[in-house]
Write the structure tokens for this entry.
Amino acid sequence: MDKDFKDNTYVGEDGLRYCSLCHTKREHRLPNPIFGKEYKLHVMCDCERAAYEKEQAERKAREFDEMVSRNRMVCFHEKKMYGWIFDKDDGSVPAMAKAKAYVEHWDEVKAKSIGLMFFGGVGTGKTFIAACIANALLDQGKKVLMKDFTEISNISVFDSDEYVRSLSEYDLLILDDLGAERTSEFAMQNVFNVVNRRWESGKPLIVTTNKDAEELRKTTDLAEKRIYDRILAMCTPIFVDGFSKRKDIVKNNYDSLKTIFERGNQ
Ligand SMILES: [Zn+2]
């Protein structure tokens, strides 16, 4: 230690060691009140401090990345969803703009507990949009959990209470595919418990569903009604029209194929 600290130093006019690179002090004088004799204490010169701060910042960044990776593994049950991010959006679905705005205004969203309900037909990209929101918030260090309604409707009686309570820890809860869950009394009770707990926690919820908002409002089934009423109270419905997206992809593929064939014929 002593040797290291004396490397690349020189003794200045004040008798203290200085760094020969940045010319700031490597020593500090301390009076010794007991023996009346002063002694010298090693201090970091500017370049040592800069190196130390850089190392600290890198360590913090590494720890943050590790936390984000852990949170992402908890959030999704399928690895392919790790890659569902806004950057990959082709701009053809207007609901995506709303999803981006949701993330951009997250502090307000959180404070006001604003939820969303993405609804639209099968294959329109509702799950994709919800996962994009999840990934963007995970990147910011937020805790997000994405589950299927089928999954939460199947919680065993034994795990139910603890599981439902654990869901309050997440900054955002996303429940995918409302309407696909079983409709047994037990399953509906589980779904209600989860949705109701979220309501009580005052934290935002995002739901995706093939049903439309009118369909949810008009249900006459009592078990469904109390779930849907909560969801409609918490989540702003956003229609997802993915048809144009698919059509565009097909068209783009067709255009690329056409280009390839035409090139081949030259
Ligand atoms: Zn230095």
In short: Residues 46-75 form the longest helix (30 residues).
